[in-house]
Every structure is written in C-alpha cells, then in structure tokens.
Specification:
The structure is a single chain. This protein is an alpha+beta fold and about 70 residues long. The chain has three helices and three strands; from the N terminus they run βααββα. A three-stranded mixed β-sheet has the order 1-2-3.
C-alpha cells in the first residue's frame, strides 16, 4: 500500500531527484507523484520492484526480471 505521506509533485521530484532516489533505496517504499494535483506515476527502487514481481510470480504469473 502507498503511504499517503509519500506523495510529491513531479516538479519537486525533478528538483531533488538525487535525494528522492536515495530515500527510495533506503526506505524501500513507493513514492506517488502528482501532475497538476492528480496522482499519476508511482516510482520505487529496482530491488523492491523486483521483489514485487517475484511475489506476483509465486502466484502463478510468468516471472519477469528487471535488468539494469
């Protein structure tokens, strides 16, 4: 589930991308970005995303891996 305290604008994310990437890697939680006040993309670190895909794959879906 997305923590509603982890909602930021795309503009803020772009201005502080290094800080946010570090935060994503450290916290392992997704970040919801807004465009014109509306929820749009969700970003998360690659390791957490891969873990999500692995959990989904364990449910019978085709397994996909993220390549860097």
């Amino acid at each position: 589930m997305i923590d509603l305290r982890e909602v930021r604008s795309v503009t803020e994310f772009q201005r502080n991308i290094k800080d946010y990437v570090g935060h994503l890697k450290e916290k392992k939680t997704p970040l919801l970005l807004t465009v014109n006040g509306r929820a749009e993309p969700v970003v998360q670190d690659a390791e957490s995303y891969q873990a999500l895909l692995d959990r989904l794959g364990a449910g019978g879906n085709r397994r996909r891996s993220v390549k860097a």
